[in-house]
Amino acid sequence: QHPPASNAPQDCPGLADQLRGVEHQEGLQRHPVAGQARQDADRRGVVEQQPSDEDAPCALPARCEDHMTVCRSLTELYQATLDQHWLKTATEIADHSLREFGSETKILAELALNERIIPIRLHSVGMIFGESALGIADQVLGRLHALTGKESYRNLLNSHLKVIATMKRRTVVNHTDYILSCALGEPAVVAVLQGDQTSELGRSFIAALNAPKYLSFLTVRPESGSPLLSPLAGLPAPKGSSSVVLTRASDSLGQATNLEELTELLDLVISGE
Known about the structure:
Elements lengths: L10 E3 L1 H10 L7 H12 L15 E3 L2 H18 L2 H18 L29 H18 L2 H20 L5 H6 L7 E7 L4 H10 L2 H4 L3 E4 L19 E7 L2 E6 L2 H13 L2
Parallel strand pairs: 3-4
Antiparallel strand pairs: 1-2, 3-5, 5-6
């Protein structure tokens, strides 16, 4: 689908170091999302460049789809741990991608402008834009916008609505990643963890929210704990050692104080009843 890249594809500074940290950090090396981040890079044929000085920064040559795939894994890793380090890394990669792969159409191209080699007679949309990259970018930026409120993410999501939403009606099979992204909703449903996230109940809430049954529909965050997170207002007061509030567009959809209540609330909100 994509034109050949030159010998100097776009690098994401520090990305290899972040993936190495995922592998070696105690307690995370066997985490399925952490492992998936590295597997995604390996599957795409992304080869780590070893620096001559072990303290020197390391970068991975990558296309837009590579950036977005790893960014999605790191975003999901943040939701599974609520460790702001992973949110910070995901936003850095997303911001880098917006700078490097932005195009005149206001959606992300598969390669940076100086990397595109396209014979005029063979030009097609698929030679510039990757359907999977756009769909995964929509998933990533939808969650990151719900978490951080950054306007640059919202602008790209609006461009997707204008461009991809029209294209998917003609070729549905090419835009399955974008269609999956629509499960996150607009505005997004955000699960806010209140109280002690390290308590037994807090850990149980995090595990339940990240279960495959619910993960595609949710953005997960703590009530506070990171300057990267957008402020919240109007939430009910925390109850017990830990509780969960589901919100949409700053409106509270309900609060759960145990796993039974959370399951009932999630099923009700996601089903739209």
